[in-house]
Amino acid sequence: MNQQEQLNSARTFMTTFHKNDYSGHDIAHINRVERLALYIAQREQPVDTFIINMASLLHDTVDSKLTNTEEATYKLRTFLSSIQINHNDSEAILHIINHMSYSHAKEHHTVLSKEGQIVRDADRLDALGAIGIARTFQFAGAYDEPMWIDEIDYQSLNNDTYSLANLSPSAIKHFYEKLFNLKELMHTETAYAIAKKRHAFMQQFVRQFFEEW
Ligand code: ADP
Ligand code: NI
Prior knowledge:
Layout: H1 3-18, H2 27-43, H3 49-58, H4 69-82, H5 87-99, H6 102-108, H7 114-125, H8 129-142, H9 154-157, H10 171-182, H11 189-212
Helix pairs in contact: 1-3, 2-3, 2-7, 3-5, 3-7, 4-5, 5-7, 7-11, 8-10, 8-11, 10-11
The chain binds adenosine-5'-diphosphate and nickel (II) ion.
Nickel (II) ion binds at residues 29, 33, 59-60, 123.
């Protein structure tokens, strides 16, 4: 199989996997991450664009929220070998997918390859901005969480000394526990420039949300 055929097979594998997902990991999310990652890759050469493309397409087929991680990794490794991805490329792709998540990074500090950093940046960019806001509320709905519930005012919430441990789960809490932190965690300059705009838009959204609340 040539690389184009391998990418097509990965796309089919991914499409089957995410077909019925409405928790924020739908096929459209994967397509956006792929496009963002390839856009960043173009501006951050030299990098292995094939690895970036494969890892983007497959990055959410191994997610502890969605699946049993070991079983999913085994299935993915078997799939990669079935489409004749060589051992080194296969391990590079799996390493990215198994180590790129926010929760994993917080606990382990595994250093990602340049390709992995780009896929992670792309995935994180899709958690920001208008799409990021929409996905957050979709996720909260899918997991039976409210938009917001606590009777804390905007000023107190935005005070640096405020402890988020006091908040019960909600979509708005997610902005403070994760989304507002992502901008400073971008690896590439290209992603950082996009993240700054999306971050500002989310801040404006949350301010307005509290005005209406
Ligand atoms: P990905 O693996 O694509 O980065 P996640 O599994 O972390 O995505 O989350 C999917 C989407 O749901 C993201 O937009 C994320 O910000 C949002 N999300 C994750 N956890 C929560 C939560 N506890 N409450 C609300 N939204 C969440
Ligand atoms: Ni993702």
